[in-house]
Amino acid sequence: MVSQEAVLLLKQLAAEGTVPWLSPDGADALDTAVGQRAFHDSFRGTLVTPGTPLSLIRAACDALLPVYAADRGAGHVSVPVGGATARDPEALVDAARMLHAAVRRPNVLMRLPMSAPGRAALVRLLAHAIGVHASMVLTTERYGQVLDAYVQGMERALAAGVRLHDVPVVVSFPVGLLDAEVGARLTRLGAAPGHPARATAGPAMARGMFRLREQRLAGGWWRVLRADGALPPRLLWTTGGAASVSRLVGWNTAHALSPAALEEAARRGGLSGDTLLGEHDRADSALAALRRLGVSLDEAAAAVEARELGRSRQ
């Protein structure tokens, strides 16, 4: 049961163009959520953990189909593709196409880590009219590369006669993972537990990504794709928990939260409006401060990516 405070928070998020996704701990948690009315009423998308049964993936898709039918930019179920195939774009494409065909639901997204093979697979999957969740994007530079691949894939889809409205793309940034890695590096550099630079890397990088997307959406390439029905790629914040909800609010974004994190975010109080638009200068200052302290954000991002890709191949 979702509290009244959480319902109010969800309404506030929706008013700002931000939607909540469920981030379940595993298949059992997803199964429990799908069987509850609160899942249908509270969440507008969900992540699926590795090893989730195909029948449960389909059930989650079916539960969110009304959301998807009303708004093609929401109601998605993100299913991981990777493991041993993550280093091979051909294998990624083949695995994703097989999984997509097995699920047989229009609102399923194939989740791919955005290393070089993942970006190559993204281009090809969009051309095959398969929606993609581009995951593990940790820097604005990588996000720019993903947007380039998105444009290339959508251009191929358009040339192939695909209805662009039916090919959604979500790009996620693991805010909490980057903050944790940077925090560990600050500790090794001697920064005190309460140092003001702690927990600033994730929000600052997220604001930089939001700014980059706004710049790209103002370009000519987007006007062409939009005229043919393309939906703007949604930015999804993951692993940030309740603390990130009020700090990262903006148009066409989403937060992946557990039910407990949603309730905790609601207890923290309401929102204070958009916290992403026009915040790039402050974000740049925060990242510059971290660099002056000796933190290499590129190295931190590479460490997170290597660690997470290693886990996905286990």
UniProtKB/TrEMBL annotation:
User: What SUPFAM superfamilies does UniProt report for this protein, alphabetically?
Assistant: Aldolase
Which keywords describe this protein according to UniProt? Schiff base
Stored Gene3D superfamilies:
Aldolase class I (3.20.20.70)
Kindly indicate whether the keyword Nucleus belongs to this entry: no
User: Is-annotated flag, keyword Membrane?
Assistant: no
Origin: domain of life: Bacteria
Q: Which Pfam families match?
A: TAL_FSA (PF00923)
Protein name in the entry: Transaldolase
Organism expressing this protein natively? Streptomyces beihaiensis
